Amino acid sequence: MTGPAASASSSALPPAMGGGVDPLPPLDLSLGVIDPELLPAAADGAGAPPALQGRYAPRAGLPPLRQVLAAMEGVAPDQVVITTGASMALTAAFATLPADRPILLPRPGFPAYANIARFLGRPAAFYDIMPPADPVAAIAAAIAAARAAGPVPAAVVVNTPGNPLGNLLDADQVAAIQALCRQADTLLIVDETYAGLIFDDPAGRAYIGRGCPPGMLRILSFSKKYRMAGARLGYVVGAADHLARITDVHWTFAMSAPLDAQIMAAGIIARGGPADLSPVLRDLGRQAVERLAGTGAVALPPRGGPVLWVGVPDWPGDSRSLAGLCARAGVLVAPGAAFGIDQPPAIRCCFAVPRPRLDLALDRLVPLFARLADR
After folding, report:
1. Using CA atoms, how far apart are residues 192 and 194, in angstroms rounded to an integer?
2. I need a labelling partner for 250 at 20 to 30 A (CA). Which of 14, 159, 356, 362 fits?
3. 3-state secondary structure 308-368
4. Is 362 exposed, middle or buried (0-12, 13-18, 19+ CB in 10 A)?
5. Could you tell me if 279 and 199 are in contact, meaning their C-beta atoms sit under 8 angstroms apart?
């Protein structure tokens, strides 16, 4: 179109539509949220500043929290993404992996690993870590078996401090697993949910993650170390291009991590973090192991984290029935089957409770296990 009509049409356009040289700032109407200005008093007293109340956080997390975590980790801020708990970090990470290659998981391992893979339609394979198994040798054998049967794993998941065994990987073991993964063109995912809860490392050899090594994702949580379990806050450290894909998946599944939780976490870090509970956990774990000794149950002495793996190898039942007996005795525990081990029967229990409550639980479990051993 030319002539006066074209000129009039062009001049009638607002600047944002091309009718001028100074475009208007965009109005974000893309999200289905109620603007807090419509509720002037509803959010009073909330943890977030008024300017942030009623809003989602930026996709990858609040910049101040990402910046402080990046400084702690020795990486750039775009190498840290905030997630809705470590479980959603795992979910988003698994979803970015090739769908036709298995994810290699520890056994026994945190139940969410296998469940997330199943829900996403990703094949899972396993390597055994029950003592006296060597996790490095087990991973090497599992990668070789996968290569012989089909595609090599898309990723290997390791967990330290471990859940449910309370085990630790040392720095040399993680370096050896990194080498195996590089050779197989496999991503290494290190779950450090219980980071900061190490209490049995006399030689100082336990792996303590920092930074962003090539070919690795590190997944961490505010739930345990920072005592923020209900706040549902985790984060991922990794290569910026991979984290961009994880951010897209996370936004689809969960939008942003809770805004108030991110503000709370930044404040906790700024104040130096919570008190170190490792000495307390060490004493509680030792007490539980000592009380169970001689009952016929075998409690693996934990080296980190808040959980204890207790097996009853001479009892003929399975782990679910064993957990049922514990429940009838007045103590709720998790059956070994939830972690991939149903036989020999075992249960996982948390010992990170006040000492009187732990004493009461052990008063109920010790005679139960003694009776089972006498059968």
Report:
1. 5
2. 159
3. EEEECCCCCCCHHHHHHHHHHCCCCCEEHHHHCCCCCCEEEEECCCCHHHHHHHHHHHHHH
4. buried
5. yes
Tell me if 5 sits within 8 A of 13, measured CB to CB. Answer: no
Q: Which two tokens stand for residue 320?
A: 């679910």
CA dist 360 and 375 (Å) reads 24
Does 66 score more than 50 pLDDT? yes
Identify the three-state secondary structure at position 279: helix
Q: What pTM, to 2 d.p., does this model score?
A: 0.88
What pLDDT, in 10s, does the model give residues 105-152? 999 999 999 999 999 999 999 999 999 999 999 999 999 999 999 999
- pLDDT tens digits, residue range 171-186? 999 999 999 999 999 9
Instruction: Name the nearest CA neighbour of 146 among 116, 180, 96, 176.
Output: 180
Q: How many CA atoms lie within 13 A of 329 on its CB side?
A: 21
Question: Residue 117 is which amino acid?
Answer: A
Which of 142, 153, 152, 158 has its CA nearest to residue 110?
Answer: 158
**The predicted structure's pLDDT at residue 246:** 98
Q: Which amino acid is at 231?
A: A
Planar angle of CA 251, 253, 255, nearest 5 degrees = 40
Distance CA 239, CA 214 (A): 7
Nearest alpha carbon to residue 226 among 103, 70, 53, 85 = 85
List the beta bridge partners of residue 105: 126
Helix extents (H) in the chain: 4-12, 63-73, 85-95, 111-119, 135-149, 171-184, 240-254, 259-270, 278-292, 319-328, 355-374
pLDDT band at 48 (very low <50, low <70, confident <90, very high): low
Cβ atoms 349, 331 nearer than 8 A: yes
